[in-house]
Amino acid sequence: MNTNWKFAEYVILLDSSFLRQTVRMVKEVMTARLGRPLPPLDLVAWLDCLLLDAGLRGKDYEVQVLLTHEAGMDKLDGCLPSALSQLDGQACRTSLAEYAFYAVSAEGMVTSEELCNDLLRLALNDANIKKRLFVPAVSADEERLNRLMRAVWEDMDSRPEDVADGTVWFRLQAPASSLACEWCSVVPSLAHVWGIRGDEME
Questions:
Q1: pTM here?
Q2: For the chain, what is the radius of gyration of the CA atoms?
Q3: Do the Cβ atoms of 166 and 131 come closer than 8 Å?
Q4: Which residues of 94-122 are buried (b: 16+ CB within 10 A; e: fewer)?
Q5: 3-state secondary structure at position 66
Q6: pLDDT, tens digit (0-9, with 9 covering 90-100), for 31-40
Q7: Residues in the chain, pLDDT under 50
């Protein structure tokens, strides 16, 4: 893959299988539990929530959103927009940020997970990035990602904690062990965008 990727100061690295599989599964479970249909996930509104959960409280952030995907995969079932082709090369602005979207294909040479890991390695090595938000597939190997992060930081001049403070790993469930960076649950942000009240989550 291109190792000269130009990153913005704020980056969201999102494996699209999280949207196609995990978000769809959570939506189906919550629809059955609540007894009412839930709307498609407003992707941009959800990204705003991720920024807030990552501690960004200013405005007018310029955020690069990298959506990794398997070759030939376009659908984002249950999301708005509903296809990667509708997002690739597009930009939009909210009251919090301006998002620039790029769909990055594994092109059959590697898996989407491997591509996501390669991009994460490049982003961790880029000292100009102020905040990295990372949403891998739920099936991603937790220990492998931890080893990847630690290996990168061992080769860096800055202290590992400096990079860890700028990296947030969004997850569906709590990690099985201590992570090499900050982590945050995606459940509250998904619930907020779907209009699920706190008492309905209990």
A1: 0.91
A2: 16
A3: yes
A4: bebbebebebbbbeeebbbbebbbbbbeb
A5: strand
A6: 999 999 999 9
A7: 1
